[in-house]
Amino acid sequence: MSPALDPDDPHAAEAFIVANTRPLAPPLVPEVVLHLAEESLPIWQKTEDELGEMNVPPPYWAFAWAGGQALARYLLDNPEITTGVSVIDLGSGSGLTAIAAKQAGAAHVLAADIDPLALAAVHVNAARNGVTIDVTRDDLLAQEPRPANVVLVGDLFYERELAARVTAYIEKAAAAGARVLIGDPKRSYFPAGRFTLAAEYQVPVTRELEDAEIKRTSVWQL
User: Quick check: 18 and 10 in contact, CB under 8 A?
Assistant: First the structure.
């Protein structure tokens, strides 16, 4: 493999992201500019072809998913939630919700993702938006919840096992005193009846990734 495509080399990973995306503002969150893929297939294919042997996850970081957009919008519209507090963003992907939390006044934001390319994307996107965000590749879902005032979950209920692990983690985090906010359009494994509705949005998305051009998406609180 070419060193330019080594996801464990932060500089190479950032170069890969910049070369294969464009700076775009998610429709629901124009205050944030992210390096995103204009089309889904090319970046998906390129990641699989060039990085597949390294067991790198699909490029979820290259898209502004509906749940993340809704959660970011909610944070920016309600800055009192994060002003001056510590925040953990689970499965951060592009870093959209982490960036929104920081823009809304969070004292410290930790973006967690097991994909090294996602963490590189968070770094690139945070710099573009003029904020500082710490990152970790640790699988936080395999640990006891770290201390935090707010825990963010954007669009993580799309696989059965992942959904179960996320639910277990955030219930422990809430029991420890964290405020848990979830942005989700009720994916297949969304645990209905567990959360309290906080807000609802009509989120513009792409037909290449979703089943509609507008995705009804909610923000929930545990």
Answer: no
Q: b/e map of 81-110 (b: 16 or more CB within 10 Å)?
A: bbeebbbbbbbbbbbbbbbbbbbbebebbb
Token code pair at residue 134 = 């710490």
Domains and CATH numbers, the chain: 62-221 (3.40.50.150)
pLDDT in tens, the chain (222 residues): 344 467 778 888 899 899 999 999 999 999 999 999 988 767 877 776 666 556 667 789 999 999 999 999 999 999 999 999 999 999 999 999 999 999 999 999 999 999 999 999 999 999 999 999 999 999 999 999 999 999 999 999 999 999 999 999 999 999 999 999 999 999 999 998 999 999 999 999 887 778 788 999 999 999
| Nearest by Cα to 81 from 61, 111, 113, 109 | 109
> What is d(CA 120, CA 202) in angstroms, rounded to the nearest whole number?
29
Residue 206 Cα distances to 30, 124, 213, angstroms: 16, 23, 6
* d(C-alpha 110, C-alpha 130), whole Å: 16
Helices 96-103 and 116-128, axial angle in degrees (round to 10): 30
Number of other CB atoms surrounding residue 134 within 10 Å: 13
Look-up: residue for tokens 């809704």? 70
* Pair 216, 200: CB distance under 8 Å: yes
This prediction has a pTM of: 0.92
Residue appearing with tokens 């080594």: 6
